Amino acid sequence: MKFLVSGHGSIRNSIKFGFQIWCVGVTKLECVTGEGRARERIWLYERLRSNDFETRGRVASTRLNFPFLFLHQLYALSLPMAGHTESVLPLHVIDLAENDRHLLAQKVKKACLEHGFFYLINHGIDLKLIDKVFEQSKLFFDLPVDEKMRSLQDNNYRGYVPIGKETLNPIESKQGDSREAYFIGWEMSEDHPLALKPLHGPNQWPSKDLLPEWRETLETYFYKLLEVGHCVASLVALALDLEADYFRHMFMAPAVALRPLHYIGEISCPEEGRFGTGPHGDYGMLTFLATDENRGLQVCRARDGEPKLWEDVPPKKESFIVNLGDMLERWTNGLFKSTQHRVVTDGIDRYSVAYFYDPDYDTVIECLPTCHSEEFPPNYPPITMGDYFKMKFTSRAQGSSNMNSTPI
Ligand SMILES: O=C(O)CCC(=O)C(=O)O
Ligand SMILES: [Fe+2]
């Protein structure tokens, strides 16, 4: 039995150098790491099934000081630190090529009631554009830190968010989320009357000399996704027995946000409060997520379950992962769920691009007309989108929970 790795480098390097890695897991085996990051007491899972290796398709990099390096074939290794489970949540698939809007709306309703998450396919965005967004995103994150810091996030949250700067779950995380991000919002000149409001204003853009195609690529994607957002919002409206264009007038200068993300190849350890992204519900209405081919996203369907069951949501080629945010949960009187999710990473860099589809700042979020009755009165008083977000940001800064669990 052979296992190996790290010492002169990570498994990532081993892969780079063409070593074939097999990833198997199962039996718990305490493993002493020896020198170095002994704190990282790890459990090395290994199983060797002669002639019958089960590839799980994932490799965990260790960065631990194992004394061995470079075995041509690695028969073991897979670390539990990344918290990956055996269970994959089979999300519903919403196909926008489906002609029957009402049938589609029923499928959306089912997905919103059951998981609060679904895959979206045939969304109409050119896959070449999506590839280019990922390529440009990577170019930015590959820049020297000094260069990235030139577009450091401003008071409107626009711009670069350095590694570890955000902690989406200040209760469960012991350190900042191991990712860096960029925030692009609705473009607005400084002298626009709305620019006086929080979150509004011009975007920051990386230097055109360094990244000549960045702005155009990201802006094109931003506005294409807005159309997809409108389309899904109309299905959500139909699913709630509202007119298809019910939400449309609330998106005149919306607080939408495009966020390229880069997970820096750290090893998450949920038990020790180390995450790529800490467990959270998104604040807004709908989120559209594109990811690279690396897994990492997990959801927890039972918010108050103990222990919590986290299920993997693997990337699905050519599709978006769509989820509902806390604001939509509140808007629907708790009918549609904002499902908690997190990202655990296993030592391999991961890129994703999230798009938060949220309405105008002054939109009043008041229990939707079809979501209350005499027996089921509104649980929450009306609040503007802007005030709701302020409340969310404040509670995060104060280190408290953000979910809609207690009516306010
Ligand atoms: O990167 C991902 O897969 C998810 C990110 C996320 O949930 C968020 O930023 O809200
Ligand atoms: Fe999220």
From TrEMBL:
<dbReference type="InterPro" id="IPR044861">
    <property type="entry name" value="IPNS-like_FE2OG_OXY"/>
</dbReference>
<dbReference type="InterPro" id="IPR027443">
    <property type="entry name" value="IPNS-like_sf"/>
</dbReference>
<comment type="similarity">
    <text>Belongs to the iron/ascorbate-dependent oxidoreductase family.</text>
</comment>
<dbReference type="Pfam" id="PF14226">
    <property type="entry name" value="DIOX_N"/>
</dbReference>
<protein>
    <recommendedName>
        <fullName>Fe2OG dioxygenase domain-containing protein</fullName>
    </recommendedName>
</protein>
<dbReference type="InterPro" id="IPR026992">
    <property type="entry name" value="DIOX_N"/>
</dbReference>
<dbReference type="GO" id="GO:0046872">
    <property type="term" value="F:metal ion binding"/>
</dbReference>
<keyword id="KW-0560">Oxidoreductase</keyword>
<dbReference type="GO" id="GO:0051213">
    <property type="term" value="F:dioxygenase activity"/>
</dbReference>
<dbReference type="Pfam" id="PF03171">
    <property type="entry name" value="2OG-FeII_Oxy"/>
</dbReference>
<keyword id="KW-0408">Iron</keyword>
<keyword id="KW-0479">Metal-binding</keyword>
<dbReference type="InterPro" id="IPR005123">
    <property type="entry name" value="Oxoglu/Fe-dep_dioxygenase_dom"/>
</dbReference>
<feature type="domain" description="Fe2OG dioxygenase">
    <location>
        <begin position="254"/>
        <end position="359"/>
    </location>
</feature>
